Amino acid sequence: MYTLVLSISCSVAVSVLLKMARSRSIKVDQAIAFNYVMAGSLCWLLLGPQPQTLFASSAPWPLLLALGLLLPSIFLVMAKAVQQAGIVLSDVAQRLSLLLPLIAAFTLFGEPATSQKLIGVAIALCALGALLWRPGSRNAQSSGSHGGLLTVVLLLGVWVGYGTIDILFKQMAKMGSAFPTTLLGSFVLAGLVSFTYLLLRRAAWNARSMAAGLLLGLLNFGNIYFYVRAHQVFSDNPTLVFSAMNIGVIALGTLVGAGVFKERINWVNAVGVALAIVAIFILFPR
Questions:
Q1: What is the model's pLDDT at position 239?
Q2: Where are the alpha helices (DSSP H) in 86-177?
Q3: How far apart are the first and last CA of the chain?
Q4: Number of domains in the chain
Q5: Separation between Cα atoms, residue 213 and residue 217, nearest integer Å
Q6: Residues 6+ apart with CB under 8 A from 281
Q7: I need a labelling partner for 243 at 20 to 30 A (CA). Which of 55, 198, 214, 283 fits?
Q8: In terms of pTM, does the model score above 0.85?
């Protein structure tokens, strides 16, 4: 069970670090770049990838390149969403991204749409709508801590971005690409994109941001590593791992956001959080 606890804790800790970045004078774009240095190194040391297979003619380079561009881009969107919308809503939007690969599975890839899946999709869409709901009046917006169109755009970006990344990883798995090798290739390409962007902008390097990036990479990889280990430990009960991970992140993120950062969400958003937990529980096959 400790593997699940550590994976959930690492996932929420990533959001906490992104939330604290501005107040600690951390440049998020530099932190994200150095995150891939740490995450890629740990992937190499702990997961045993075989990078030579990436140079085979059958290597899915278009998907890898897409991931290399998407990973740092969506990380930036997530960072801005955490700053603007808070940890609670950003984490829930990220966890609801599971809806997109599910829809793709039975609309693009021919998997059957069971009644359970359709009910789960309907509830998840209701949850997403509730999360994105903003008070209509100017007074309501000024009294709430997270009003405005920008919040909606960022949360949608988190949802679409992480859902797209999940679809790309699933497609690579279907093409026979080993997950550790795919992950390493994605980290390396994402790092190259991030550092190229910073060099072109002639960024003024900041030691605090670099250190924060290495910590971010440790947490980011820890989330992935302990999640994979949890699936190995509970190999006979993947439902437990999936449900506990997603619901655990939402629950812990809500506690941290409300308890530590004093985030306030309106009652409709709170209903969205509850519906997201119900949808996650329903969507995973028994």
A1: 73
A2: 87-95, 99-107, 115-132, 138-143, 149-174
A3: 20
A4: 1
A5: 6
A6: 243, 247
A7: 214
A8: yes
